[in-house]
Amino acid sequence: MTRDALLAWCGLISAVGAASGVIVVAVRWMLRTMKRLGALADDLLGEAERPGVPRRPGLMERVGAIEDRLGEVERVVCRELRPNGGSSIKDQVARIADR
Is the pLDDT of residue 83 over 90? Predict the structure, then answer.
């Protein structure tokens, strides 16, 4: 084997090794990204109940539940901020201010 052939083989082995390294890094990045996207999809869509694991609601179902609770809080706050004959916060503050 001549010197030029030996250098060509060494160059080829180095190029294949470098390409393999790049491919391994790219595949690891892709697998990690796909795992994150899968977790994001599970959070957005929710998960069905499995044996030993409770059901997890999806994002829109969670937002709907938060809106329902917020609506109830809003009704209570509005009720307390309007005078109603003595039992609302507004009536009690007015009574204290009149003293």
Answer: no
